[in-house]
Design a protein that fits this description.
single chain; alpha/beta; Rossmann fold; 11 helices; 9 strands; about 20% strand
Length: about 375
Amino acid sequence: MAAPLLLLALLVLGCTIGPVAPPEGAAAALAQATGAALTTPSGAPGTAAPGATPAATASPPPTPPPATATPAPTPTPVNLRVPQGTAEAPEDPGDQRTIAGLRARPYEGGPIEIVRTLATTPAYTSYLITYPSDGLRVTGYLNVPQGNGPFPVLLINHGYVNPAGYVPVASNYTKREGDYLAARGYLTAGSDYRGHGNSPGTAAGAHLDTAYVIDALNLLSALKTLPQADTGRVGVWGHSNGGSIAERMMVVSKDVDATVIWAGVSADAVDAWLYLRDWIRRPEGELRERYGHPDEQPDLYRRMSARQYLADVVGPVQIHHGTADAAVPYAHAVSLDRALLGAGKAHELLTYPGAPHNWAGATWDLAIGRTLAFFDAHVRGEARG
């Protein structure tokens, strides 16, 4: 009995005790899969429904001794060069509303902490996690394929969901795509974003704000603490506002090898301002008070626009959009297609005649199949040098 008691003592000493303790096998299962030491967060959410997640079919592996396991180094994403601008139109790397500001700042890099296991399937295990972003503990999900890895990584960015009543992970409607891709060998992760569910902070990151972009880049950096995550092979996927987040991520970080955007809001700042006024019906006075007006601040709006920096994009881009989308104009996809063409970047625009904003049935099957094939071609292959 002495050896088991000693092992139990090491396990207890190796954890940070908080108000939410994961099931006995949860942190251990990921520790076994990744080789990283994982701790229980302080102040983490106590409950969260798993949402559209396959039913558990197996128990987590037995608890291994984690006493000697330590987190891997936590480098920040390899950001693209900070633009210098010109004497007539200088850049301001201190302004995080701008692409230069997003490139100039560091990203935190972990640790990822397990709250609990959401599901264990024959193909992958799904976890509710928290991770650090700008001093906040933000919730999200992590799907780790079964096996030794390391596995290529996909960041899954959801679009707008009303923060009121948001339930961690369960309200993230894009976990459907994350689960599908994890079942096919990708380590997938998605942030709930700050101010959603039990994540602290203000939910102000849509379209013209950058908080959610920062949360997504911090999650990418945090994944570098997991040996099971091959962050030399990274893809980014986004739907709706998540498409805008994905578009901005690909002009900030060299880590993004390929990007897929479904029904994405334009990451051109002028387009985004007009979208808020003309499609979302935000009062112009309210927009002027918070963001000014593009006609009065053209240089700032240029520096906020991802589409001004497409020449720096590292990997190819795949764009999907339905022509009957009543939530985000199809024109946003067409303008991104033209901008990428002008920048000489590899990309494709896939149009779904008569399709709405959210997809199901045959449209979803076609889109997710095309998405998987694209990531298989541009992410699953050889890691970048």
